[in-house]
């Protein structure tokens, strides 16, 4: 079927490529003409603006917006809404905050437009492996887009089937789920990313303990000089902690066992933060997910005012003078 | 080759079975005669005591102890050490504390005996999938036991190869690693389990937020009635959080979406605790791994003295009277 | 000077009483006529509604709103704003979210009204000890209300002076601070409460360890039967952990050493939650403050879905069947 | 009465001074002759070694050891034990691990010697304010030393009495407690320090949020330029978070509002670590106390292997390249 894509970055561009591989017809726009040209060269219909993009589609239209969450997405959705017609659908495939989805869906509904939010996981691997998608929106709008989702999803592949799923929604085993009304897709994706932070931090802490077991700060008799690259690799094979994140870790460690190519500075995105906000709204204890987020905050500073407060107190009660950082 | 097994519980029994499937010759002992008899019926040589077990083996002997960590293992190892001869090897395949391994290995070395500690992951699935093994001990003793480890390990199977491993120890891709001297095997297994706790808690917190998103404590407009079984399933397919633990979660939720068969009481074992002790010894921040452990501690109590202290303070400064638990 | 109070609960009523003790002239309103009558009997001017309240004041008027944060405060402030005249001031002494203050102050400024937000600490003890106040608003409006704040504040009393404060704002040593523009008062009070949660939880965890050191789950040789009431008392005297919260704890434990009068259910208020939101907005690691909040969330549940997820995984990989909760 | 002191550092020296102020007779030894000479000049009897020290005392002797926990204390106690006679008492006033106390007390008991462990809080302020003491040991040995403890303790002073303590041990209100048998004193002191870490971290996190509320990383409309020195001061007066640690913080901030004299590097001592070990042994959730400890661990590193693992994973799944640390 026909789909327009706005935003041809790493994610948007590859989604278009995967759709075209499955025979879909894509109209593409990006504020960078070079990005449009590149995909046009691969078979897409390039356009120079939103008006042209809407004009190039036959109703009922479907436009996928793949832009950074926040102002860029908001502006594109609202401009599109003004150009499109009742029965058309706007898909937000980015990482929007789910309450923005709820608000936008209500605004679009008044004009007879559909709004579908799609949380998309798979990163740079999605083009070949397929994308895992978590979808929110009206049942009919989601159903009409099914060929798109089916093409983007990984499909059942050779992943073992979970017993006991007979009679359940078959789309789920293909790798996409209609999670609920507008906002539900991004809500589920948000929690997905919150969990991702927690999983990553669990591995990170464990590998740091392994890495430092050889440190000369320990008594020599209790020191082990462990090969963390081999340990990551062996855990991929039959252990309880095997996972795709571990596969990536094993690859990184095989290439650079000391990870000297990294500074230790770790960014975070909105979804990790919103997950904690959601936990607080729902009064759910989220000690692990929040600790994972805070570790990233801390990683980006050389020292903190909090730590200076500690030293100031220690000097105050005990006369302790801290040494400088080593 | 020939191996004796002491302890024929879920783990020990299946290890013997897997070894026999690969053509190895097993002598077995358990304090339960029925357990011995069962494996004897499957082809093992059953014996009635440690003396008989040692007598049934040709030197250099290899005896695998698969008993609960602590007193049971300690007693078996020490009794065996008194019965065995220079050049023989005792393997502790249980979940011993690694400092006990270091101590025992030193004691056995004085008698000319080898001590090999093997951390074994794979649980009830190991019989068919194979066991991931983390091994500590002298190079020669570990090398001599290689046919045993090769039989127990999962093998390379259809798990994609990690790039960049050319020239590295080939045993690792088979699913076992010689991590270092005595104690190193159980140290790595200990951290493995510490990570496991963290991974599990990350999923658990995320699923609780999803589960409670439909709660009527939230404003109706922000409530979603999410199908957590479907969400667990879809994440298995192309998402960043896919893992074996997620596979198990998806199975459990497909069978019982509300998990009504569980009370919420969660046990912990020594390894999760020792991981935090190790982090503290090494001055490694382990916020996620410790939070995962503490969540289990809390799960086993109805209420805590700590919480009563909080209520007492709140009454003291604000006159707040807490309601009862709902 | 003249001040009107709306909301005569525990806080509002006592603030009026303390003001009258210092010779100020109070007009009071509450939706409960009995509350109005009670304070009228103590010398205040009772009125039956907001119109009457505004009419009873001479310009420039000052009205203190002491209602639950959220809808009740919002409605009272907005209704008052419609009744009052340029140059008048509305004081929000409750626990409002500071972004609401910023918004309201802007709305009132358009009508020539002043808005002053006052975070008030002191609880049931404030009537006699005085209230610690954190104030946000325009310099002039705050200055005009100085007699009110001076009367409510504890004053310098016999608390030792901090060295090095010569030349600094003298109001601070009296127990009130003009923290900044509208919203700053409640922001500082919010963080105050966030810290309060952390302090309380630190004591709570410590006392639980002391309390359970006598438990028969420990080896008898390492068990101590500690008197936590005496320990709380002794720490009040010369130790590094002495504090007002510890004083309250010592009182509660002297009266009821097992705290049997408490269920373990602990409530939380908006400020503890908003503190974490603020930390996240500012990318500040807040592991202790968030853990303190989450402990309260956990205290209010018998068991959690998260814990059931853990048990389900444990059964999945190890065949572990959890026992029921004791 | 007569008491000998071994170790004349900041703590030991001031304890001797306070005892002499109260008319007690002190024999002193330190491996630094200058330290001995200094106190001899203030009225103590200086000696040149342990033999001379024991010889200078009349039985039943009492010797207070005030040395770093670990080897130094162990050696001094064991050498003293060999020199002393049945009925004599050794006091360990340092920060020993309580299980070492239990072991030492048992060893000394076999020789007819008493062992008393005293956890001492008060830091550099103790000379004038008095020391809060937590004492473990036999009832008789502790009773015989009562004049020493009474002299060192702060006494009841002007700290308000806790209601409901009639009939309770009167020593507690003087500032010392006989907590239980050998080891109990240091156990209680250990938890005291664990709580201290938690309290300090709660303030530290709160002040960091306040400090960074003026940062230009926030939208200008939500920024406040807060004076943290004034805020610390105002909270000392009537607020729920007032404490001695806050007094110290207010002093430090009055002298150096940006705390520019501190590097952010924060040390920790054994007691904070042992508190977590104890919590784990007793299965007590200690999220706040452990987070406080881990914050210190993190403060001492520029970056961590854990953080590099996170970046490596992020690059693996999303192609994210982290920027360098700012």
UniProtKB/TrEMBL annotation, chains A, B, C, D:
The keyword Protein biosynthesis does not apply. Pfam families: 6PGD (PF00393), NAD_binding_2 (PF03446). Residues 185-326 form the 6-phosphogluconate dehydrogenase C-terminal domain. Pathway: Carbohydrate degradation; pentose phosphate pathway. GO terms for molecular function: NADP binding; phosphogluconate dehydrogenase (decarboxylating) activity. SUPFAM superfamilies: 6-phosphogluconate dehydrogenase C-terminal domain-like (SSF48179), NAD(P)-binding Rossmann-fold domains (SSF51735). GO terms for biological process: D-gluconate metabolic process; pentose-phosphate shunt. Transmembrane segments: none annotated. Keywords: Gluconate utilization, Oxidoreductase. Belongs to the 6-phosphogluconate dehydrogenase family. NCBIfam families: gnd_rel, PRK09599.1. This is Decarboxylating 6-phosphogluconate dehydrogenase. The lineage of its organism: Bacteria, Pseudomonadati, Pseudomonadota, Alphaproteobacteria, Hyphomicrobiales.
């Amino acid at each position: 079927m026909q789909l327009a894509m706005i935003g041809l970055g790493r994610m948007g561009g590859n989604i278009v490529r995967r759709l075209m591989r499955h025979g879909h017809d894509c109209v593409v726009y990006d504020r960078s003409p070079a990005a449009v040209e590149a995909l046009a060269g691969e078979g897409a219909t390039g356009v120079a603006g939103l008006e042209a993009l809407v004009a190039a589609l036959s109703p009922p239209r479907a436009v996928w917006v793949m832009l950074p969450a926040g102002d860029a997405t908001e502006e594109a959705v609202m401009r599109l809404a003004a150009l499109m017609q009742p029965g058309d659908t706007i898909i937000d495939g980015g990482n929007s905050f789910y309450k923005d989805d709820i608000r936008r869906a209500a605004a679009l509904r008044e004009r007879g437009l559909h709004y579908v939010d799609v949380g998309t996981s798979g990163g740079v691997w999605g083009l070949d492996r397929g994308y895992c998608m978590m979808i929110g929106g009206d049942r009919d709008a989601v159903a009409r887009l099914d060929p798109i989702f089916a093409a983007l999803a990984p499909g059942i592949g050779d992943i073992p089937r979970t017993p006991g799923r007979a009679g359940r929604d078959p789309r789920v085993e293909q790798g996409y789920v209609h999670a609920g009304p507008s906002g539900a897709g991004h809500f589920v994706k948000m929690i997905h990313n919150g969990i991702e932070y927690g999983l990553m931090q669990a591995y990170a802490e464990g590998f740091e303990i392994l890495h430092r077991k050889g440190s000369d700060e320990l008594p020599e008799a209790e020191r082990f000089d462990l090969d963390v690259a081999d340990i990551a690799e062996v855990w991929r094979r039959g252990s309880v902690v095997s996972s795709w994140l571990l596969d990536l870790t094993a690859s990184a460690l095989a290439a650079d066992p000391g990870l000297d190519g990294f500074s230790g500075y770790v960014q975070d995105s909105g979804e990790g933060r919103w997950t904690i906000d959601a936990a607080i709204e729902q009064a759910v204890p989220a000690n692990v997910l929040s600790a994972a987020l805070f570790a990233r905050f801390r990683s980006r500073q050389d020292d903190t005012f909090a730590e200076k407060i500690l030293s100031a107190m220690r000097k105050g009660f005990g006369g302790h003078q801290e040494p400088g950082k080593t």
